[in-house]
């Protein structure tokens, strides 16, 4: 997953204001770190996205991102 796709998924699901806040503040259960901390460490974006989906119980239909 490319970073632009990751950000598009975040903004589509959480909005352009809440999305960036969540990336800095929400600690993912699976990792014990925020998404931004994991990005800085080089964790695969797809794995981070799936962990976010699990934590926020995002329905499977929306886990693939928005339809363009």
Concise summary:
By secondary structure, the protein is mainly alpha-helical. It has helices at 3-25, 35-41, 45-55, 60-63.
Task: Tell me what the structure shows.
By secondary structure, the protein is mainly α. It has one domain. The protein has four helices and no strands. The chain starts with a helix and ends in a 5-residue tail after the last helix. The model has no long low-confidence stretch (mean pLDDT 94). This is DUF3046 domain-containing protein.
Which tags fit this structure?
single chain, mainly alpha, 4 helices, DUF3046 domain-containing protein, DUF3046, 68 residues, globular
Instruction: Indicate the proportion of strand residues.
Output: under 5%
Q: How many strands in all?
A: 0
Q: What is the helix fraction of residues, given as a range?
A: 55-70%
Mean pLDDT: 94
Structural class: mainly alpha
Beginning-to-end CA distance, first to last residue? 16 Å
Order of helices and strands: HHHH
Overall structural domain count: 1
Q: How many helices?
A: 4
Main sheet: strands, sense, barrel = none
Low-confidence stretches: none
Cα shape: globular
């Amino acid at each position: 997953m490319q970073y632009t796709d990751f950000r598009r998924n975040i903004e589509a699901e959480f909005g352009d204001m809440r999305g960036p806040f969540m990336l800095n503040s929400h600690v993912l259960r699976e990792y014990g770190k925020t998404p931004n901390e994991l990005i800085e460490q080089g964790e695969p974006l797809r794995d981070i996205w799936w962990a976010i989906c699990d934590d926020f119980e995002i329905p499977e239909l929306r886990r693939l991102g928005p339809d363009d």
